[in-house]
């Protein structure tokens, strides 16, 4: 949850991080504790630890059958939106294998009852999602006056023992969200250790997830420096650390350094929350987060599905899975995103070891019904030892691939194409375990001349999300109000008070004086009829910040609002 994620005013995060990095690397990766070998029994857990369901071994999160499990999912604010019961099904339909669910122990928000928590677990299981449950009331303790303690959170989990019992294959208990602010973060270690011991003494054997201090971002390195001692305080060895990555993590060096320190030390880690859109404190490097997580096989859970106070972090607009924001498109359909990398937990197939054999390549696609703006592709089906569950159509440009369509059958209609343009397409197949086939042979398609984008009709909603001296964050939602898909669009507008765009996501901006031209990113390139895409940006401004009064798409005027 994006709240007060930086140091108090006057502190230099980058300077502190630079000063600490050498010490912290030694503290985690180079200390005698970090160099310890696994316990004598070779399990990666203390002797006598019971392995039940999801568990940690040798620095990895495993299922009960020993299958490696890598989280690919999102956060969902259940406690504030208990009526949004379809959200888990929608999140699963977009490919996630895990959902982190916001709960309250009643300290700060309305307490989620045992019956409600049981219903959440049932919905997770019905939708074949691993369920990470977290108490949000601890957020920012020591700096946020309304925050509760980790001890209170532990008491809440103990009160839910009857609900949690027997769910070790499906549920991870995240003791408390971001349980320490920026005030004396060293105070995080003792209550964290105490809460772990209290839960284990009460009999909970679930995987426990531990959030970092500094509002989850650990920019002073307290969790990193003390992770080994905290891990060894768990008599079951079933502990998973969680780092939240927002504006503190705005360079590749910072991200890779932090994640690799845990991997090198053999300590289990997940990116329990992260954001991509920038704010006045910085611009998170989400591309490196996703790439590093995939390279190191670490889990990640994006913040968050919908309903944020600052909607720039909404993955779905208005809880609608058909209206993904630019941030949502990046997470679900982008490179190293959920659609590309998620694998369902094998427990939902009876706990059998994971299927690792990919389908065969689909046959060569054939194009038909080619118009100025669309084409239909059909291909011979792929085969698989278990079963093919879907296909992914990609546009091939040199060494680059861009996902353009998905289908559960060996055919797909591509819309939003540009008239008189030559495209190259290919197809991949996936099976139920998420294994991806080799790519099919390619097909070249040239759309008809003269069509352009017929009947273009659009509206643009512009708003200022946040302002600070000399700068601001803005957002534009481009809606296609026509009857045909809108592809290959260019959005134009003019600033009225000399504002300048410094960074944009969801598109690329070029500016000449006050005139701005925006072209789409690959994941916002096509706007379906009745659909929309959201573009965000940060910019510079003077004393006034008047909104643009006119917008065009491909030179034609758009409505406002």
- Give the name of the CATH architecture of the largest domain: Alpha-Beta Barrel
For the record, the CATH class of the largest domain is Alpha Beta
Mean pLDDT: 86
Spatial ordering of strands, largest sheet: 22-26-19-18-28-27-21-24-23
Task: Give the strand tally.
Answer: 28
SSE-based structural type: alpha/beta
Largest sheet: 9 strands, mixed
End-to-end Cα distance, whole Å, is 28 Å
Helix content: 10-25%
Number of helices: 11
How many domains? 3
- The CATH superfamily of the largest domain turns out to be Glycosidases
Query: What best-fitting shape do the alpha-carbon axes yield?
Result: globular
% residues in beta strands: 25-35%
CATH topology of the largest domain: TIM Barrel
- Over the alpha carbons, how many angstroms does the gyration radius reach? 24 Å
> What is the oligomeric state here?
single chain
Report low-confidence residues grouped into runs of 5 or more: 2-49, 451-455
Family: Belongs to the glycosyl hydrolase 5 (cellulase A) family.
Domain Fibronectin type-III: 361-450
Protein name: Endoglucanase
Keywords: Carbohydrate metabolism, Cellulose degradation, Glycosidase, Hydrolase, Polysaccharide degradation, Signal
């Amino acid at each position: 949850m994006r709240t007060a994620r930086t140091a108090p005013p006057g502190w230099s995060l980058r300077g502190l991080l630079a000063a600490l990095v050498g010490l912290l690397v030694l503290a985690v990766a180079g200390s005698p504790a970090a160099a310890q070998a696994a316990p004598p029994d070779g399990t990666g857990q203390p002797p006598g630890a019971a392995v039940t369901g999801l568990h940690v071994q040798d620095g990895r999160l495993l299922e009960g059958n020993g299958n490696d499990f890598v989280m690919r999912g999102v956060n969902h604010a259940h406690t504030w939106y208990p009526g949004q019961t379809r959200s888990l099904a929608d999140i699963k339909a977009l490919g996630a294998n895990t959902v982190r669910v916001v709960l309250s122990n009643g300290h700060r928000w309305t307490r989620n009852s045992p019956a409600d928590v049981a219903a959440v677990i049932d919905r997770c299981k019905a939708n074949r999602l691993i369920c990470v449950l977290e108490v949000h009331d601890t957020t920012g303790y020591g700096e946020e006056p309304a925050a509760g303690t980790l001890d209170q959170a532990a008491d809440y989990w103990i009160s839910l023992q009857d609900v949690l019992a027997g769910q070790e294959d499906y549920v991870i208990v995240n003791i408390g969200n971001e349980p320490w602010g920026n005030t004396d973060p060293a105070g995080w270690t003792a209550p964290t250790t105490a809460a772990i011991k209290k839960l284990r003494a009460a009999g909970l054997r679930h995987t426990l997830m531990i959030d970092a201090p500094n509002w989850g971002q650990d920019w002073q390195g307290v969790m990193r420096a003390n992770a080994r001692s905290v891990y060894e305080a768990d008599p079951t060895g079933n502990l998973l650390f969680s780092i939240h990555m927002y504006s503190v993590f705005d360079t590749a060096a910072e991200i890779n350094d932090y994640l690799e320190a845990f991997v090198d030390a053999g300590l289990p880690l997940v990116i329990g929350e992260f954001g991509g859109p920038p704010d006045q404190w910085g611009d998170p490097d989400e591309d490196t987060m996703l790439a590093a997580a995939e390279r190191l096989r670490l889990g990640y859970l994006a913040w968050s599905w919908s309903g944020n106070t600052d909607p720039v972090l909404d993955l779905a607009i208005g809880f609608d899975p058909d209206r993904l924001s630019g941030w949502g498109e990046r997470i679900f359909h982008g490179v190293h995103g959920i659609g590309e990398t998620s694998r369902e937990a094998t427990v939902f197939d009876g706990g059998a070891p994971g299927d690792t054999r990919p389908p065969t390549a689909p046959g060569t696609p054939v194009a038909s019904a080619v118009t100025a703006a669309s084409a239909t592709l059909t291909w011979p089906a792929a085969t698989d030892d278990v079963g093919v569950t879907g296909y992914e159509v990609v546009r091939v440009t040199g060494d680059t691939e861009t996902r353009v369509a998905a289908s559960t059958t060996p055919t797909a209609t591509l819309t939003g194409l540009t008239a008189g343009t030559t495209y190259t397409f290919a197809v991949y197949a996936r099976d139920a375990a998420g294994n991806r086939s080799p790519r099919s042979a390619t097909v070249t398609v040239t759309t008809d001349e003269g069509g352009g984008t017929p009947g273009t009709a659009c509206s643009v909603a512009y708003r200022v999300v946040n302002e600070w001296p000399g700068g601001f964050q803005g957002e534009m939602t481009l809606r296609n109000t026509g009857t045909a898909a809108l592809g290959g669009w260019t959005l134009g507008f003019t600033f009225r008070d000399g504002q300048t765009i410094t960074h944009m996501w969801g598109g690329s901006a070029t500016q000449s004086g006050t005139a701005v031209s925006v072209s789409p990113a690959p994941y916002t390139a096509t706007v379906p009829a009745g659909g929309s895409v959201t573009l965000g940006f940060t910019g510079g401004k003077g004393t006034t910040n008047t909104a643009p009064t006119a917008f065009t798409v491909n030179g034609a005027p758009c409505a406002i609002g």
